């Protein structure tokens, strides 16, 4: 019975924080903990503009009928100062009746790069990361992207329990939009987990710009996709391969039964010598 009443989000929107003091001066991390780094005035302005664009996108992309007209937004936000401030500025574009609620979520915080970060030392460490590989390299006293993957996976399980149990308390006549205000690497890891991308595919991805947001919308076949709100050119600029882009396009109208959801896209990578049939002759 509960499954019949489950209200799937119409859109899941991933957003990176606005420009921070650390983005323009790496030396800021030597004296200020990462979680306390503030936004610049430019970062605040970016967030206000992004909020206006996000509201315009949601309100103009209505699915029709009362459900589309009664759209609502629920926010998840990282506890870092730069993400919290970003959300405050984004929120100025939305009326109170449109916002269902906000949850501060520690599992979508920034990758931990260590404690106070000495600029010259971090430059050497990041050069080493590029040689080692961004996904598995663990920062001294910090995390690897694979560590972030583990906690983001836990967050995703909680997010779906929220949806299953209607913890967002959304009215069935409303269209639900989930907005996740987080960080660049965390957002890329979220997408890796969601779309079952490989480590190699993750390594291809470029970071989001400050206050850039990417929109996953529920397609006609029940799958989430970038293919409704983003062009193939945009996805190519993000670093996605042709196979990754083709998968997004297929999700616009495809269902779980018709998509390669069991990772058959990578079958030849591991089983390139398989016979086509079981014939042993």
Outline the structure in words.
By secondary structure, this protein is α/β, with parallel strands linked by helices. Helix content is 40%, strand content 12%. The chain contains eleven helices and six strands. It has helices at 21-24, 41-60, 65-69, 81-90, 119-132, 145-164, 184-195, 199-204, 232-237, 242-251, 267-270; strands at residues 11-16, 72-77, 99-104, 176-182, 213-218, 224-225. Strands 3-2-4-1-5-6 form a six-stranded mixed β-sheet. Helix 2 crosses helix 4 and helix 6 (145-164) packs across helix 7. The model has no long low-confidence stretch (mean pLDDT 90).
Largest sheet: 6 strands, mixed
Question: What order do the SSEs take from the amino end to the carboxyl end, as H and E?
Answer: EHHHEHEHHEHHEEHHH
Distance between the termini: 52 Å
Question: Helical percent range?
Answer: 25-40%
The coarse silhouette is: globular
Supply Rg: 20 Å
How many distinct beta strands? 6
Decide which structural class fits the backbone: alpha/beta
Mean pLDDT: 90
Number of helices: 11
Descriptive tags:
281 residues, alpha/beta, 6-stranded mixed beta sheet, 11 helices
Structure in a nutshell:
The chain has 281 residues and is α/β, with parallel strands linked by helices. It has helices spanning 21-24, 41-60, 65-69, 81-90, 119-132, 145-164, 184-195, 199-204, 232-237, 242-251, 267-270, and strands at residues 11-16, 72-77, 99-104, 176-182, 213-218, 224-225. The chain is globular.
């Amino acid at each position: 019975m509960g499954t019949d009443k489950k209200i799937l989000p119409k859109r899941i929107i991933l957003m990176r924080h606005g420009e921070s003091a650390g983005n323009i001066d790496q030396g800021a991390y030597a004296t200020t903990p990462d979680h306390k780094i503030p936004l610049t005035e430019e970062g605040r302005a970016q967030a206000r503009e992004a909020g206006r664009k996000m509201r315009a996108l949601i309100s103009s992309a209505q699915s029709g009928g009362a459900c589309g007209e009664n759209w609502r937004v629920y926010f998840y936000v990282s506890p870092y100062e730069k993400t919290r401030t970003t959300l405050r500025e984004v929120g100025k574009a939305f009326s109170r009746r449109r916002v269902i609620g906000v949850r501060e979520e520690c599992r979508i915080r920034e990758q931990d790069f260590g404690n106070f970060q000495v600029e010259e030392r971090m430059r050497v460490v990041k050069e080493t990361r590029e040689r080692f590989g961004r996904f598995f390299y663990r920062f001294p006293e910090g995390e690897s992207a694979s560590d972030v993957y583990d906690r983001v996976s836990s967050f995703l399980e909680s997010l779906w329990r929220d949806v299953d149990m209607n913890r967002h308390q959304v009215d069935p006549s409303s269209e639900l939009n989930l907005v996740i205000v987080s960080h660049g690497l965390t957002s890329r890891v979220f997408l890796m987990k969601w779309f079952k991308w490989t480590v190699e595919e993750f390594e291809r991805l470029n970071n989001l710009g400050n206050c850039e947001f990417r929109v996953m919308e529920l397609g006609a076949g029940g799958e989430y996709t970038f293919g409704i709100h983003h062009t193939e050119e945009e996805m190519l600029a993000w670093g996605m391969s042709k196979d990754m882009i083709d998968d997004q396009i297929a999700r616009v109208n495809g269902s779980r039964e018709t998509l390669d959801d069991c990772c058959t896209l990578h079958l030849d990578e591991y089983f390139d010598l398989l016979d086509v049939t079981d014939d042993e002759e």
